[in-house]
Every structure is written in structure tokens, then in C-alpha cells.
Amino acid sequence: MTVTFCGHNDVYGDEKIRSWLEAVIRQLISEGVTHFYCGGHGGFDRMVSSVLEQEKKRSPQIQRILVLAYLEKNHYEDDYDYTMYPELEKVPKRFAILKRNEIMVQDNDVLVAYVTHSWGGAAKTLEYAQKKKKRIILYPETQCSEQED
């Protein structure tokens, strides 16, 4: 089972969202998830990367995968185990992130989303996942309890 993330650049209520994200990721790991895909843009993605780095210490089998929208170097590549680049050369640059997000949704089983308003790339990605009938874990609607170690 594989997971992808989407969320807004601005993350409000950081500690509350981070606690939720930690619980969600731990729950998914307990369900057998080993591959976590992220786009690497914005505040939510940086938070995801940080939580995954923390969880990798406890669960070294997990893989943190950065899915690039552009071939140029991403400043956050070192925060991931490896990178992937879907074939997006023929996609106009202004649509590359949206197309990359759609590919991530298609290729994964679960979408973990921090989407608090109905506009922007994260909202479009969430809407796409809903159309594709993917399992969606949405902040703040989905609650996960902290698991004991």
C-alpha cells in the first residue's frame, strides 16, 4: 500500500496539524504502508518530510519519495530517500505540478490531505482523488488516535 500527501503552503495551527500527521502516519505504518510520496512544495510538504524523517528512525523500512514536477534540482531532495520524475516534459510548466499531483493520486492507494479551502492546487488534488474514489484521510475530519510504543 502506498500513500501520497497534499496540502496548502500555509500551515496554520502547526503543532495540532503535526500531531495529527504523526498519528496518521503511525497508523498507516501499522497497516503496512512502506512508501510515502510527497511533492516537496510548501509548508505542509515540509512538515510531512519532517514527520517521515522522525518516523523512519522507528520504522526504517519506510521510504520517503519526492516526486518531482520539474527536472531541475529541488532544494529538498536530500530530505527524501529518493526522487522520481514522471514523464512531464510535454506538459506546460504552469500545469506540471497539477499533472504530477494527478499522477501521484493515480499511482497510490491513500491520499493524506490538509485542505481547508476550496481553491488552489491542494483542493484540486483532493477533488481529483475523490473522483478516483481513493481512500482519503482529511484534516481535521479524520481522527487518528496515538498508538502506544
How would you explain this protein's 3D organization?
This protein has four helices and six strands, in the order E-H-E-H-E-E-H-E-H-E. A six-stranded parallel sheet has the order 4-3-2-1-5-6, sandwiched between helices. Helix 1 crosses helix 2 and helix 3 packs parallel to helix 4. Helices cover about 40% and strands about 20% of the residues. The chain is an alpha/beta fold. It is globular and about 40 Å long. The two termini are about 20 Å apart.
Summarize the structure.
The chain is of the alpha/beta class and 149 residues long. It has helices at residues 14-30, 42-58, 93-106, 121-131; strands spanning 2-7, 35-38, 63-67, 82-84, 110-114, 135-139.
Strand content: 15-25%
Quickly count the domains. 1
Total of helices: 4
Global shape: globular
Number of strands: 6
Distance between the termini: 22 Å
Q: Kindly state the percentage of residues in helix.
A: 25-40%
Q: Compute the average pLDDT.
A: 89
Main β-sheet, spatial strand arrangement: 4-3-2-1-5-6
Output the helix-strand order. EHEHEEHEHE
Structural class: alpha/beta
Notable traits:
Rossmann fold; 149 residues; six-stranded parallel beta sheet; alpha/beta; 40% helix; globular; 4 helices
